[in-house]
Amino acid sequence: MSARAILTPKTEPVGADGYTLRERSWKREADKHVQALNVLLAERGAPIRFGFPAPVAVPFDGPGPDEAYAGALPLDDELADILALSTALLQAARTGTDDVAEERTLLLRRAALTDRLALATPYDTTAQSRAIREAHILMTFDVVHHTGRGDFTADSIEADGAGGPRAYVRQEYAAWHTPIPPGEGI
User: Fold this and answer.
1) Cα angle 112-115-121, degrees, rounded to a multiple of 5
2) Burial category of 28 from C-beta neighbours within 10 Å (exposed 0-12, middle 13-18, buried 19 and up)
3) In this model, does residue 173 exceed pLDDT 90?
4) 176 sits in which H/E element
5) Measuring CA to CA, which residue among 86, 89, 82, 61 is closest to residue 168?
6) CA distances from 63 to 3, 82, 186 (A)
7) 130-164 burial by CB neighbour count: b if 16+ within 10 A, else e?
8) How many CB atoms lie within 10 A of CB 116?
9) 129 C-beta neighbours (distance < 10 Å), count
10) What are phi and psi of 129, to 5 degrees?
């Protein structure tokens, strides 16, 4: 008897439909659940129906990088400001006078800086993943503290799609960076 190779998710062969045997069985089970859900929705007269896989998220209709970062400080000045703000927040936390608004400003500027660095180095996968990670940190903070200022909230379906976290950062940076016109916001 010959020893059989153990199949793992990385070594399992993929069929013509693009699924492995294991994924096909998961999809069959998911289809059963979706079908049962649609029957229940139909019985209750709901106007929606579900399909599997889930529909692709709506594209994020926020500002582009050029619009969001227009008038932003150069990268080295932005980094210096972020370090100074971080130091001030650390001191405030030690004395018990920390501020949620200042913490959000730090997270927003840090996420915007990493996004700008990732835009400057499009083939650097580390920079891309750091930008997404920092965007998720900001989004989590905004969901917990209800502090977003843009049209799309951090927990919206638009912000959840591909490219959504970084687009959310751009939206929030543009809202933060744009000065309020005289006579408004008083």
Assistant:
1) 145
2) exposed
3) yes
4) helix 164-177
5) 61
6) 57, 23, 25
7) bbbebbbebbebbeeeebbebebebebebbeeeeb
8) 21
9) 12
10) -70, -35
- What is the C-alpha separation between 27 and 165, in angstroms, rounded? 28
Instruction: Write the CB contacts of 9 (distance below 8 Å, at least 6 apart in sequence).
Output: 20, 22
Q: How many CB atoms lie within 10 A of CB 168?
A: 27
pLDDT in tens, 120-166: 998 988 999 999 999 999 998 998 888 888 888 888 777 766 678 89
Q: What is the CA radius of gyration of the chain?
A: 23
- State phi, psi for 20 to the nearest 5 degrees: -80, 170
Amino acid at 98: D
For the record, the structure tokens of 122 come out as: 């499009």
What six digits make up the tokens of 103?
């913490």
Total residue length of the chain? 186
